[in-house]
Amino acid sequence: MAKQIIHTDKAPKAIGTYSQAVKVGTTVYLSGQIPLVPETMEVVQGDMLVQVRRVFDNLKAVAEAAGGSLADVVKLNVFLTDLAHFPLVNEVMAEYFAQPYPARAAVQVAALPKGVPVEMDGVIELGQ
């Protein structure tokens, strides 16, 4: 199957050698999103709540550009520089997702691009 590169101006452009997402068949692989404002490519100003929401908004924009939505996410990976923020991620995630929730992993990492505290990537299945 041919791969299709997904791009939208409603999410931050890639800051490295990657695509916002790649679609193969009915599966879409979402690249990691950090709390960048698409229009300025700067980290969103605000506390952790604001930053987590920005990440979900960015993922949502890419999902929609691929012809899907966050409801189509089957796997979500959450990277945090401090797992103490895990309950907040759960709280915000409940604003963006309904049951049944996607499979998920949450991992504490030493550092993330641009010094941000959170990054997420995921997989969408459009053939549901």
A few lines on this structure:
With 128 residues, the protein is α+β, with helices and mostly antiparallel strands. The protein is 23% helix and 32% strand.
Question: Can you lay out the helices and strands and say which pair or pack?
Answer:
Elements: E1 3-6, E2 21-24, E3 27-33, E4 36-37, E5 42-43, H1 48-65, E6 73-80, H2 86-96, E7 103-108, E8 118-125
Parallel strand pairs: 6-7
Antiparallel strand pairs: 1-2, 2-3, 3-8, 4-5, 6-8
Describe what this molecule looks like in 3D.
- With 128 residues, this protein is an alpha+beta fold.
- The chain has helices at 48-65, 86-96; strands at 3-6, 21-24, 27-33, 36-37, 42-43, 73-80, 103-108, 118-125.
- Helix content is 23%, strand content 32%.
- Helix 1 crosses helix 2.
- The mean pLDDT is 97.
Structural class: alpha+beta
Instruction: Report the β-strand fraction as a percent range.
Output: 25-35%
CATH topology: 60s Ribosomal Protein L30, Chain: A
CATH architectural category: 2-Layer Sandwich
* Total discrete domains: 1
Mean pLDDT: 97
Which residue ranges are poorly predicted, with pLDDT under 50 across at least 5 consecutive positions? none
| Shape, principal axes of CA atoms | globular
- Please give the radius of gyration in angstroms: 14 Å
Q: What separation lies between the terminal Cα atoms?
A: 18 Å
Which H/E pattern describes the elements?
Answer: EEEEEHEHEE
User: What is the number of helices?
Assistant: 2
Major beta sheet, strand line-up: 1-2-3-8-6-7
Q: What top-tier CATH class fits best?
A: Alpha Beta
The percent range for helix content is 10-25%
CATH homologous superfamily label: RutC-like
- By DSSP, the count of extended strands is 8
